[in-house]
Write a structure and sequence with these properties.
The protein is an alpha+beta fold. It folds into three domains: 90 residues, no CATH class; 86 residues, DNA primase DNAg catalytic core, N-terminal domain, CATH 3.90.980.10; 126 residues, Dna Topoisomerase Vi A Subunit, Chain: A, domain 2, CATH 3.40.1360. It has a five-stranded antiparallel β-sheet, with no helix packed on it. Strands 6-7-8-9-10 form a five-stranded antiparallel β-sheet, with no helix packed on it. Strand 7 and strand 8 form a beta hairpin. It is globular. The N and C termini lie far apart (63 Å).
Length: 310
């Protein structure tokens, strides 16, 4: 295929301005590199190394010894790349492709099969399910899933999680993708707008646990991002209670330390082991754990983290 002619060392000599000198082999006798003209960091520069493609009828981007960038649409010989990098500096900026929001035809829970409604109403009450407008999906890639949405002020879904009720699945929760036009879960604190100031806020990990306790919010994960921390600190809450799952107690200590450094009252609770991460059937016990928790100082939190005991 003539690939020996363009070894990695020769490519490095002919393309001095590449961000990444490694190249990738592609079918049809092509190699792909990072374009030094538009400064695209993906392998978007296609170089033809197939000697059989020397026909005059072929376009230059498909001819032997020619290169074609799929990002900035530059076409030419390999030896001209270094000169073009300086002649055409306006093409160095990567073209931003707008993300088109993808809408999914979710349906209300009233149209879901009975087993999905039974599962949902066993986790939370029917009134809460109607209040937070929980939906059902029977389309790919969220096939046979309960949709747990997060809405903005206009009633538009900005993020959602799809809950699979089959316990045999490896991943029970599937989050919406940023590529589909939805926000990242690290920028959202669920149910924050429904909690009044000068109240106690309970920081939970998941959607259902946040709705099972009083003044609960969900992080959709074990970690607290800077955006989420800023949203919580902007509110004038009385105290912060960290109430994550049992396998995330160290993450809970890290979250508590972040709030304690700002001088707030912080408590750390642990879900009882027999609850198996679900506090719906033991709401009273979970609320007793929250009410009986003792405020911790910064030294206590650091000692618990270092000691490994909780």
């Amino acid at each position: 295929m003539g690939l020996k002619m363009y070894t990695q060392e020769k490519i490095k000599l002919s393309m001095k301005n590449l961000y990444q000198q490694n190249f990738m082999k592609a079918p049809g006798g092509e190699i792909r590199l990072c374009c030094p003209i538009c400064r695209e960091k993906r392998y978007r520069l296609y170089i033809c190394c197939n000697k059989s493609k020397r026909m005059a009828s072929r376009p230059t981007e498909f001819a032997y010894g020619y290169a074609h960038c799929k990002n900035c649409n530059w076409k030419g010989k390999i030896k001209d790349i270094d000169n073009e990098s300086y002649i055409r500096p306006s093409l160095r900026k990567v073209k931003e492709i707008p993300i088109v929001r993808k809408e999914f035809p979710f349906v209300p829970m009233s149209e879901a099969p009975p087993r999905f409604r039974r599962y949902l109403y066993n986790r939370i009450s029917r009134a809460k399910a109607d209040k937070y407008k929980i939906l059902f999906s029977n389309i790919y890639p969220y096939f046979s899933s309960i949709i747990l949405p997060v809405y903005d002020e206009t009633g538009k879904i900005i993020f959602f999680q799809a809950r699979k009720i089959n316990d045999n699945r490896k991943f029970k929760y599937v989050s919406s993708r940023i590529a589909d036009g939805y926000q990242s879960p690290s920028t959202i604190v669920f149910n924050l707008e429904n909690i009044l100031d000068n109240e106690q806020v309970v920081i939970c990990e998941g959607f259902f646990n946040a709705l099972s306790v009083k003044n609960g919010v969900a992080l959709f994960g074990k970690n607290l991002s800077e955006v989420q921390q800023k949203q919580l600190l902007e509110r004038n809450f009385k105290e912060y209670v960290v109430f994550l799952d049992n396998d995330a107690y160290k993450h809970g200590l890290d979250i508590a330390i972040k709030f304690k450094r700002y001088g707030h009252t912080v408590k750390v609770c642990k879900i009882p082991e027999y609850c198996n991460g679900d506090i719906n059937e033991n709401k009273e016990i979970a609320q007793q754990e929250i009410n009986s928790a003792v405020p911790l100082s910064l030294n206590d939190l650091i000692s618990l983290k270092i000691g490994g005991k909780f």
